[in-house]
């Protein structure tokens, strides 16, 4: 568990590279909707690597700046809770739609989460930090948004999406954000956690610890 806790985001990038090679080799044989869902899966893995490994100081921003924690190295987010939340998001929320690619609302929800990431990273966090960048924003701009636009254009142009898909997909996205991100961080917080972020993961907010 200690190895996974330390290297889960690095392993995620290896998975992303593997999926990318698979797509390159099998692109013409994979249905378009599945190609887009695989690309969306790659996007979240790259996003998580950017947040927790390089430049990797999302934890410091989240704990030290957003929550003004007196223990930003472990509260409210800590390496254990970050690992659990992010693995569930990537390997359940983003990956399950590939098992049912024609169930549009199931794939639409992660796409909407990708757009939501721009609101969080591109607007909210930057306004709080008074910056133009924070870890996760490059993945949003280079992956989530273009892939999301591509996905939505595809399901509309092919007539795959229905009004019910939009309603259910939006509702599922909102519930997922609330449970996995909002409540997940609250359920797993531990001010006395023995798991602490590294100085790199705290970044410019390390001095607040």
TrEMBL record:
Instruction: Please indicate which superkingdom the organism of origin belongs to.
Output: Bacteria
Q: Name one Pfam family in it.
A: HXXEE
The record lists the lineage as:
Bacteria, Bacillati, Bacillota, Bacilli, Bacillales
Is Transmembrane a UniProt keyword of this protein? yes
Bilayer-crossing regions: 6-25, 106-125, 132-152, 164-182
Query: What keywords sit in the KW lines?
Result: Membrane, Transmembrane, Transmembrane helix
Name under which the protein is recorded = Membrane protein
- Species this protein is from: Brevibacillus formosus
């Amino acid at each position: 568990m200690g190895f996974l806790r330390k290297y889960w985001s690095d392993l995620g990038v290896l998975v992303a590279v593997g999926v990318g090679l698979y797509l390159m080799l099998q692109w013409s044989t994979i249905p378009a909707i599945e190609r887009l869902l695989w690309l969306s899966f790659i996007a979240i893995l790259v996003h998580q690597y950017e947040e927790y490994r390089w430049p990797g100081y999302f934890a410091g921003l989240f704990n030290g700046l957003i929550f003004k924690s007196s223990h930003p190295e472990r509260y409210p987010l800590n390496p254990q809770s970050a690992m659990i939340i992010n693995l569930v998001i990537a390997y359940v929320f983003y990956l399950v739609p590939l098992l049912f690619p024609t169930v549009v609302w199931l794939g639409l929800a992660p796409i909407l989460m990708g757009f939501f990431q721009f609101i969080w990273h591109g607007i909210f966090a930057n306004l709080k930090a008074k910056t133009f960048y924070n870890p996760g924003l490059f993945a949003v701009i280079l992956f989530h948004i273009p892939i999301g636009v591509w996905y939505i254009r595809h399901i509309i142009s092919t007539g795959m999406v229905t009004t019910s898909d939009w309603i259910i997909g939006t509702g599922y996205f909102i519930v997922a954000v609330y449970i996995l991100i909002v409540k997940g961080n609250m359920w797993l917080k531990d001010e006395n956690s023995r798991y602490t972020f590294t100085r790199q993961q705290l970044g410019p907010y390390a001095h607040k610890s």
